[in-house]
Amino acid sequence: xxxxxxxxxxxxxxxxxxxxxxxxxxxxxxxxxxxxxxxxxxxxxxxxxxxxxxxxxxxxxxxxxxxxxxxxxxxxxxxxxxxxxxxxxxxxxxxxxxxxxxxxxxxxxxxxxxxxxxxxxxxxxxxxxxxxxxxxxxxxxxxxxxxxxxxxxxxxxxxxxxxxxxxxxxxxxxxxxxxxxxxxxxxxxxxxxxxxxxxxxxxxxxxxx
Amino acid sequence: xxxxxxxxxxxxxxxxxxxxxxxxxxxxxxxxxxxxxxxxxxxxxxxxxxxxxxxxxxxxxxxxxxxxxxxxxxxxxxxxxxxxxxxxxxxxxxxxxxxxxxxxxxxxxxxxxxxxxxxxxxxxxxxxxxxxxxxxxxxxxxxxxxxxxxxxxxxxxxxxxxxxxxxxxxxxxxxxxxxxxxxxxxxxxxxxxxxxxxxxxxxxxxxxx
Amino acid sequence: xxxxxxxxxxxxxxxxxxxxxxxxxxxxxxxxxxxxxxxxxxxxxxxxxxxxxxxxxxxxxxxxxxxxxxxxxxxxxxxxxxxxxxxxxxxxxxxxxxxxxxxxxxxxxxxxxxxxxxxxxxxxxxxxxxxxxxxxxxxxxxxxxxxxxxxxxxxxxxxxxxxxxxxxxxxxxxxxxxxxxxxxxxxxxxxxxxxxxxxxxxxxxxxxx
Amino acid sequence: xxxxxxxxxxxxxxxxxxxxxxxxxxxxxxxxxxxxxxxxxxxxxxxxxxxxxxxxxxxxxxxxxxxxxxxxxxxxxxxxxxxxxxxxxxxxxxxxxxxxxxxxxxxxxxxxxxxxxxxxxxxxxxxxxxxxxxxxxxxxxxxxxxxxxxxxxxxxxxxxxxxxxxxxxxxxxxxxxxxxxxxxxxxxxxxxxxxxxxxxxxxxxxxxx
DNA sequence: AATGAATGAGTATTCATTCAT
DNA sequence: GATGAATGAATACTCATTCAT
Lengths: 209, 209, 209, 209
Prior knowledge:
By secondary structure, the first copy, chain A, is mainly α. The first copy, chain A, has two domains: 1-56, Homeodomain-like (Arc Repressor Mutant, subunit A, Orthogonal Bundle), CATH 1.10.10; 58-205, Tetracycline Repressor, domain 2 (Orthogonal Bundle). Chain A has helices spanning 2-31, 37-44, 48-54, 58-80, 86-102, 105-111, 119-141, 151-165, 176-187. The relative contact order of chain A is 0.11. Chains in contact: A-B, C-D.
């Protein structure tokens, strides 16, 4: 009986966690990081206290959700590593990344707020950068990408391209396509002068103060 | 007499207003738009009520500060209209713009949040775009800039370039130089295919819902 | 188990709610509608946030308290429907109503301020008028009440009689008895000329602008 | 020159006071006692500080305005003392009084808030009661008014009649006519039993705690 | 005498977090 | 493990009143 209860409790907990993550993902995407924990609990159909049992603070929840999103991008990059045309693969990855950002208000805010101190997110982004390095290496070998850009550049550019079109988001939700194309014109310019500043080191190497 | 008395009162007011604007500029830059009016008042060394006497709402204060920043950029663009090399002028303008953004958290938030309803800011940005149009026209005539980019593109790219380097801001405050160079490589690629998406319309044409 | 736990939690909540309602009733009665939520919380011995957990806004709390008072009057009218002498019953009802008003500043304010937009209160008053209609009908049938007055007239007169004696409240707390008697002399004058203005329509029929 | 300036200053002050009284009368009537001193100053076209020079506190201003209104009613009662039919005169006075109340939100609030401690207002009301005593005496002599009502009763009834119809003010602005008629039916019932409670003493005899 | 800038206490309301059940 | 009631600090904004000019 106690065993049964515990087993039942565990199953409930797993189900609650799943619901919570789904609700939080949706709520953060729609409303940004300022959505309240109460709203998230309500969307998940669980009690507020249960949210805090699964994640001891709002930042922890936010970090978990964000890492999940980054992991999705890692998977996408992974799938594209075997594509025929590495430049097209890179373009597709970037399009996917920008679209994910455009659909998720909180993701953008987390990316853009170094003060948020989400170490796990920085780690996930470093992993993403490493995976994208594969894509960029293949594209460079094929000669379709300039030699002095790295996976980290590509990943950082996702945020930049999205931000460029963000003020237009409501009047022209596809505007990011313009700036993605423009960025690619720079990235693929294999005869350009070398960039005047070195590529970024992994984020975890220098956690924010 | 009355003039003298009023003048002295006004002098105090002007001093307070200057302090307030300085404190608000600093506080918004450091802490972003969420800094409280109380904090701003404290930094300015005046009472909370005095802040509201000068600006009837937080949004009004934020708008005033932001318009001031945009006006600074307009002045910078204006000065560069007579430079010898229009492409260099454009690069310098963009460098200035990105640096302003990098130093001001609230500015970035205002730019990137179309819902903020700060009509005056939208107007100022439209004016900035128009001024930058002059820079881009000259650069295009000289053949150093692709024909299908506009002043608005350049202005939007300021936010994008800054955002690209934002995650690196603390470990490498100059990283934006790398992405500015990359963006310019795309912008100056006069033989590139035309961009796949039209340039943005003025912001004031599409007020937020 | 869960039931037990919840039951105890609920018991605390019920106790707090009771305290809150008691404190709010008292505070509104003493100080009028302008008493602050903080004062009410303090009187109830609970935190400000708890007040808002029970009632999402001050208006909601005020409406709840007021409806409770009106419901008390409805119950009083209901009890008097079976009295032997319908005119005496009406007089007793009016005495009760005026006394309730005299003891409650907020009640008077709510009644007398159509702009307050408390729809539930308007509904409760309409219900009160309907109940009092029974009393007036019986009194008319018995010939002790003029035919052209309605339950709504009686209900409105409660506020009027109280207001008449309000300036005397402190020096002569029973002064309302004088004006109640005077009003009844008018109401029971069955041979008087018909009133020159029609009786009021239900309040809910004409919500405030 | 100094004389001239002083003379000029005095003329200005008189003009300012007149403007202030007019603006305050209007603002209090429209908005009730909660209208802000700033709003009143603005309507008067003078500075806030000037308002406080003329009246050291908001209550003082409110008292002055209210006394003025009561004085208007005293004048009205005075004029009606020589009317042919004393009962008609009384009815006319009461209609005037109720209409004044209906047109002035602040007046009603002052009447209905004994805590406001406006001694001058209480004095003015006592004077009004004394004047109305003349009207009631004449009506009693003519046999049209019951013997046991006083001028103070009549004055207090003005507020009561107005309050009775106040909840209907928006949907039926003339509803007070119904309740004035009803009140007069009680007042003129010369064969009624004596009222069960003595008439009010002058207000100033018992200032509020 | 007039001005209006400055003050600061006061208001309703929100929300992450804690904890008794 | 789950609940949700309680907390209390924080926020933008208002307004009567003061006072230096």
